[in-house]
Amino acid sequence: MSNYFGTDGIRGNANEGILRSDQLVVLAHSIADWLMSQNVARPLIYLGRDPRISGSMMEHTLAGAFAATGAHVRLMGVVPTPAVSHAVVKNRADLGVMISASHNPFGDNGIKLFQQDGHKLSNNEQDAIELFLQDTARPTLWKTHDQIGTVEVVDRSLSDYLDFCKETLPAECNFNGMHIVLDTSNGSMFKCAPQLFRDLGARVTILHDQPDGLNINKNCGSQHTQDLASMVQEKQADLGIAFDGDGDRCIAVDENGMELRGDQLLTICALELKRRNELTDNALVVTVMSNLGLHLAMQDHGVKVEVSGVGDRNVMEKMQTCSAVLGGEDSGHVIYRNFHTTGDGLITAIQLIRALRASGQPLSELATCMQLYPQTMVNVSVSKKPPLETIPSIQKKIEWANATLGKQGRVLIRYSGTESLCRVMVEGRDEDQINEIASALATCIESHLA
C-alpha cells in the first residue's frame, strides 16, 4: 500500500509530512529521477494550483526544485485541475502538476500528477516514484550552469482551456436566454466559469467568487449547495451549478432549488448521449458508491452499467477497458472520455445544459428519469486503517446490516484514500431504517478504530 499517494494523488495538512517545504524538494527530485528513468532528461512541466493560502508557497518550492534538477517549468497560476491536464497534452509537456486538496478545507493541500497523454499517473507509476522517495542513499544531483532549468509564467492558460471547453459543444449551441447561477467555491473556477457561461450567451449570477486563501470550500461549492439553492429560487434562474475547489467536479441545482447529485447528472447525460447515438456500446461506468436508482434507470433504458472502484482514476481505467465514453462518481466527478482525459466540472456543466436545451424541459422534469434511493453516509474518524475483514465484531455487524436490509438495500464500508476516515454508506427503501443501520455500524467501527 502506498505511503504517500491516495485515491487522488498526495493529500494532507499543508506544510506537514511530505507536503512540508523541505520534503517537497525531495519529492520534486524523486519525480525528476523517475522521469529520468523513463528517458526524460530535461522535462517540460506544467504546474497549476488552486487559490488556498499554501498553494503559492508550494508552487514556488516545487518550481525551484524542479528547475534545479534541470526541468523547464511553466507556471499556470490559479487554474482548474482539468486545465493542467489539457495544457500537458496541448503543449506536449512531460508532466503536469496540480497543487490542490480539491474539496478539502484551506488547511489541507495536495498534489495531482498528470502524464504526457493527460491522464493521471497509474498506481504503478506512483509506486515507482515512492521507491525513489524511499531510497535515501541515492545521490542528489543538482544541475549547475546552463543545465539549470527555466521557470516561466504562461499567460494563456485559462483562455486556452476555455477555448478547449467551447469546442466540446456544436457551433450552433448557445445558452442565450438562460439565467444560470454559479457557485465557484472561492476556488479555481472563480474566473473561468463565469467567463465561459457569459461567452455562451447566458445571464450569470455568481456566488463565492472572492478567494482569499482561507475561504475555499467554506460552506460553499459542491459540498454545500444551500446558498446556491436559495439564490436560484430568489432569482428565478433556470438552474445553478456548484464547483469544488479545483473545478474537477460539479453538482447542479434545479429551478426549484433541489440538488442533483453526480448520479443524477450521469443518468441525464448518459440518456442524452444514447439519444444522439453517441453512447459507445451503450455503456456507462460508475463506482461502487453509485445509487441503486441509477442502476434501475439504466436498466430501463437498455444501458449497461460497468462498476469500478472509488476515484476518478479507477473510473477512467474501467472506461478504457470497456471503451465507454461516459463515467463518473456521485460526488460530481464526471468524465467525458471523448472530450477529456480527466474529470472536468466545466465540461460536465455545459454538457448537462446542452441536454437540458435539447429536451425543452425544466431541469426538475429532466431529473425524473432517475428515482433516488435513500442513501446515507457516515464518516468515522479513525487513527488506523487495518483491513476491516480482520475485525470479527465489525464483520458480524456488517452481516447483521445486510440481513436486515435483504434485497432492498446494501451496505458499503471503505476507508477514504485521502483522509483519516472510514466511510459507512447504507442504501435502501426506508430512510429511517438506513439511518439506524448506519449509526450502529459507525458506532461499532469507532469503538475499534478511533
Describe this structure in words.
There is one protein chain. The chain has helices at residues 21-37, 55-68, 81-90, 123-134, 157-166, 192-199, 226-235, 262-275, 292-300, 312-322, 345-359, 363-366, 392-405, 431-449; strands at residues 5-6, 9-13, 44-49, 72-78, 95-99, 108-114, 151-153, 179-183, 203-207, 239-243, 250-253, 259-260, 283-287, 304-308, 326-328, 334-336, 375-381, 409-415, 421-428. Helix 1 (21-37) packs across helix 4 (123-134) and helix 3 (81-90) crosses helix 5. It is α/β, with parallel strands linked by helices and 450 residues long. The chain has 3 domains: 5-158, 3-Layer(aba) Sandwich (Alpha-D-Glucose-1,6-Bisphosphate, Chain A, domain 3); 168-369, Alpha-D-Glucose-1,6-Bisphosphate, Chain A, domain 3 (3-Layer(aba) Sandwich), CATH 3.40.120; 375-449, Alpha-D-phosphohexomutase, C-terminal domain (TATA-Binding Protein, 2-Layer Sandwich). The chain has 14 helices and 19 strands.
Tags for this entry?
450 residues; alpha/beta; Alpha-D-Glucose-1,6-Bisphosphate, Chain A, domain 3; TATA-Binding Protein; 3 domains; seven-stranded mixed beta sheet; 14 helices; 19 strands; 37% helix; globular
